[in-house]
């Protein structure tokens, strides 16, 4: 039976493993205390932890968290990187730290969900843009598209509105004039008189009867 102190360590470690979106196993041999603190400070900015673990307790915690696959990448001096948010953030900070400080820390592998990642996959993951960067690009593209769409939609609407307004302004005069031209009683009476001329009819009748 583990001591109460070790039991508490296992419990805390079990929670970290269960809650993490990614767990990266590293060999911290040669890593100084100052470098360890620097790495932890960098990781904390993205809600990521770096924990030095005892392998036997880590095995128990992995089983308790139902992530026994994690035991495959725990051996020798082990420091675990636990990311609780975007998986890219954890590996990006870790790989950047190793590159910038030329540290002796090495990456053994990682567990992302139920999937094992080797070193090449971890490096490839670290080169991907993070969620914030992706959202920034997406918002920029959407803004450009929305502005263009608004312009396209507004242009024909504004043009149609102008045409309608001009039509409304000019329609009353045209309507009155056409109405006056259509209702001219004098012209109608004259044409009626011309069509019904009794004198011409009588004269032609007299000529025929002679």
Secondary structure layout plus pairing:
Blueprint: H1 4-19, E1 22-27, H2 33-44, E2 48-53, H3 55-64, E3 78-83, H4 87-101, E4 106-112, E5 115-117, H5 119-126, H6 131-182, H7 185-195, H8 198-209
Notes on the protein architecture:
By secondary structure, the chain is α+β, with helices and mostly antiparallel strands. Helices cover 65% and strands 13% of the residues. The chain has eight helices and five strands, in the order αβαβαβαββαααα. α2 (33-44) packs antiparallel against α4. The N and C termini lie far apart (153 Å).
What is shown here, in short?
The chain is an alpha+beta fold.
In CATH, what is the homologous superfamily of the largest domain? Ribosomal protein L10, N-terminal RNA-binding domain
Q: Order of strands across the biggest sheet?
A: 2-3-1-4-5
Question: Mean pLDDT, rounded to whole units?
Answer: 77
Quick one: how many beta strands?
Answer: 5
What's the overall geometry?
globular
Ends: how far apart?
153 Å
The structure class reads alpha+beta
**Proportion of β residues?**
5-15%
SSE arrangement, N to C: HEHEHEHEEHHHH
Q: From the alpha-carbon coordinates, what is the Rg to the nearest angstrom?
A: 45 Å
Could you say what the CATH topology of the largest domain is called? Alpha-Beta Plaits
Tell me the number of structural domains.
2
* CATH hierarchy, class of the largest domain: Alpha Beta
Identify low-pLDDT runs: 174-210
């Amino acid at each position: 039976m583990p001591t109460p102190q070790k039991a508490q360590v296992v419990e805390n470690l079990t929670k970290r493993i269960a809650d993490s979106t990614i767990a990266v196993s590293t060999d911290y041999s040669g890593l100084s205390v100052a470098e360890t603190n620097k790495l932890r400070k960098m990781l904390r900015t993205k809600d990521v932890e770096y924990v030095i673990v005892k392998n036997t307790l880590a095995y128990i915690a992995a089983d308790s968290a139902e992530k026994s696959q994690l035991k495959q990448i725990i051996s020798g001096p082990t420091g675990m990187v636990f990311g609780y948010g975007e998986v890219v953030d954890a590996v990006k900070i870790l790989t950047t730290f190793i590159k910038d400080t030329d540290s002796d820390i090495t990456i053994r592998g990682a567990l992302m969900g139920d999937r094992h990642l080797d070193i090449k996959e971890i490096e490839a993951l670290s080169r991907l843009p993070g969620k914030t960067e992706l959202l920034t690009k997406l918002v920029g593209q959407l803004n450009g598209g929305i502005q263009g769409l608004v312009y396209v939609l507004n242009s024909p609407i504004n043009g149609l509105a102008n045409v309608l307004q001009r039509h409304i302004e000019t329609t009353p005069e045209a309507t009155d004039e056409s109405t006056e031209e259509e209702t001219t009683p004098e012209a109608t009476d004259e044409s009626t008189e011309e069509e019904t001329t009794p004198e011409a009819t009588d004269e032609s009748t007299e000529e025929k009867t002679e």
